[in-house]
Write a structure and sequence with these properties.
Keywords: Endonuclease, Hydrolase, Nuclease. It contains 14 helices and no strands. It has 254 residues and is an all-alpha fold. The longest helix has 19 residues. It binds iron/sulfur cluster.
């Protein structure tokens, strides 16, 4: 889709997208996991390591077999099964409430595929009304699994956008969902790549502490770089790698 330049911030956001798309490589939109798995895992993941979240998810399904089993389980037993998470006593009733709402919406099935047919606003409102489901999770699910044009923003995407300078310094992660979305074309494939690339960038190069600016292809127009090092010199730009080097720096996460 051709870029639409509507403001200096949109101009920067699209430049960021275009440079990181080249640096990390363009990806076809694809889900990380099935919609039900994505939704329930998110509830388990709050303040919990990925390994402990996965352990809780596996133990829950081992103990109760399937979604009807998880819903019918005594809540205290469900909490015990997911005990590797941070707040199992809060998360167990949440999971059962989410399953109840899904069942009530579908008339019995444990599927979220009706979201594909719903208008975006309706799908977003339904998801964010669930206990334990925020804008980031709802956006991830709708973008990754149903290719709706929304943008999940986590701390990595948020930090890169603020440092480069297309997101104001006082805009919260929650508010950034709408602000960044308004800067970008309503194109699910572009938004998927924008999310993945800026997420990787925050995780692998633009660290919270001591960002690895010498390795960064955004230095030529990054506000943080300008403030800390001055305008990027021809030498610094020439020394910047063109692409992510997986052999030297490691494989990118899923
Ligand atoms: S130049 Fe430095 S601060 Fe700016 S985006 Fe790159 S790593 Fe982050």
């Amino acid at each position: 889709m051709p870029a639409t330049y509507t403001s200096p911030a949109a101009d920067k956001a699209l430049a960021d997208h275009s440079i990181l798309d080249h640096f990390y490589g363009h990806l076809p939109p694809q889900p990380r996991r099935t919609p039900m798995w994505e939704l329930i895992s998110t509830i388990l993941s709050h303040r919990t390591t990925h390994a402990d979240e996965e352990l809780a998810y596996d133990r829950m399904l081992e103990a109760f077999g399937d979604w009807p089993g998880v819903l019918a389980a005594p809540t205290a037993e469900l909490a015990h099964a997911i005990r590797t998470t941070r707040w199992p006593d809060t998360q167990a009733p949440r999971i059962q409430e989410v399953l109840r709402r899904i069942q009530a919406t579908t008339g019995g099935d444990f599927t979220l595929d009706f979201l594909a047919e719903w208008p975006l606003e309706q799908a977003m409102a339904w998801l964010t009304d669930m206990p334990g489901i925020g804008l980031k999770t709802a956006s991830l699910l709708l973008l990754f699994n149903y290719h709706k044009p929304v943008l999940p923003v986590d701390t990595h995407v948020h930090r890169v956008a603020q440092r480069v300078g297309f997101l104001g310094p006082k805009v919260s992660v929650e508010k950034a969902h709408g602000v960044l979305l308004a800067l970008l074309p309503a194109d699910a494939e572009l938004l998927f790549n924008f999310h993945k690339h800026n997420y990787w960038h925050g995780q692998q190069i633009c660290f919270f502490l001591r960002p690895n600016c010498p390795r960064c292809p955004l230095k030529g127009f990054c506000g943080y770089y300008l403030e800390h090092y001055g305008p990027a010199t021809a030498e610094a730009l020439a020394a910047t790698p063109e692409r992510w080097d997986a052999a030297a720096w490691g494989k990118l996460p899923h």
